[in-house]
Specification:
Elements: H1 3-27, H2 35-38, E1 40-42, E2 48-50, H3 53-60, H4 75-84, H5 90-95, H6 101-118, H7 120-130, H8 134-147, H9 173-210, H10 217-235, H11 243-255, H12 258-266, H13 273-301
Antiparallel strand pairs: 1-2
Helix pairs in contact: 1-6, 6-7, 6-9, 7-10, 8-9, 8-11, 9-10, 11-13
């Protein structure tokens, strides 16, 4: 779990190591230092210190082996490279620029994406929080209708246990599946713009307090997600005045009623006053949703 997020950490670390290796080469009269040369040095006490060259190559090349370096840098290698490359501390080697805005942004997106697809409990919470973003509020119920038709007590064909597909609601299932990841990503970005400072604080605190090495970093991230991140998401749950929440409720009520009209036509039943009312209600509701979406876009610019 959290393979993509951990991979961000590994990319930043290997970039940091290569930069330090280049700096060391410059100090060596611009002679490129080989990995063999990097694997030994004389310390301040005149004692020769050495380390396994192949492991150093694995770390720099971001090559991970289950029984050798399952978390990229074994603790002994971390200590060696910290001293050999003149880092002030092991923490600096691992996390020196982790707090940069672009890094926090990437980590936030990756963590939430992986949590959404891999953690059912957090998925429900995240789905609720992201409903605040109107485009997501519009497409999320449709996506659920495809996967969990019983969730919204969807209509069934007359005399059958088969649920009426999205086609009868005027939507293509393929289209919904194709656009959902886009609106999920936009919803996460909308949330990020609101909670960036709070997320950065709890994440940096987590790194400083729990990540003095990379050992079991995936398990540590899981703990962070299930505790600190979960609590943060709860703070940003949509309130009663949420524009997205209003849209979601419309999608579940007025929009879903549209199928009654389609099914009446499909079953060759007469179009009565109730169905005409539902059709007019649907059209006005969709106009209202468009107005709310424009209002939110204007609000987003001011965040």
């Amino acid at each position: 779990m959290f393979e993509e997020t951990v991979n961000i950490f590994y990319d930043l670390i290997t970039q940091r190591l290569r930069t330090r290796k280049s700096i060391l080469s410059e100090k060596n009269n611009n002679q490129n230092i080989t990995f063999e040369e990097l694997s030994s040095y004389i310390d301040s006490n005149g004692v020769e210190i050495s380390y396994d060259t192949s492991m150093i190559k694995h770390v720099f090349g971001k090559k991970i082996y289950k029984y050798k370096n399952p978390y990229l840098i074994p603790d002994s290698c971390l200590t060696y490279l910290t001293n050999r490359l003149d880092f002030e501390s092991e923490q600096q080697l691992l996390w020196e620029d982790i707090g940069k805005k672009e890094n926090i942004h990437s980590i936030f997106h990756c963590l939430l994406q992986e949590s959404f697809w891999d953690n059912e409990e957090l998925k429900e919470l995240l789905n609720h929080v992201l409903i605040d973003y109107i485009p997501y509020a519009k497409v999320s119920p449709l996506f659920d209708m495809i996967l969990f038709p019983s969730k919204y007590e969807m209509k069934k064909f007359t005399g059958s246990n088969l649920y009426v597909p999205l086609f009868f609601y005027g939507k293509s299932e393929d289209e919904v599946i194709e656009i959902f990841p886009r609106y999920l990503d936009e919803g996460i970005e909308f949330l990020y713009m609101k909670c960036y400072k709070d997320f950065k604080k709890i994440f940096i605190d987590f790194i400083n307090e729990n990540c003095t090495s990379l050992k079991k970093i995936d398990k540590k991230l899981e703990g962070f997600v299930n505790n600190e991140l979960k609590n943060l998401l709860l703070q940003y749950s949509p309130k009663e005045d949420s524009l997205g929440l209003r849209v979601r409720n419309i999608m579940i009520s007025d929009w879903f009623s549209r199928v009654d009209l389609v099914m009446a036509i499909f079953d060759k039943r007469p179009i009565d006053g109730k169905l005409l009312f539902e059709m007019e209600l649907y059209e006005n509701s969709m106009n209202y949703v468009e107005v709310l979406e424009k209002l939110q876009k204007a609000q987003w610019i001011d965040i």
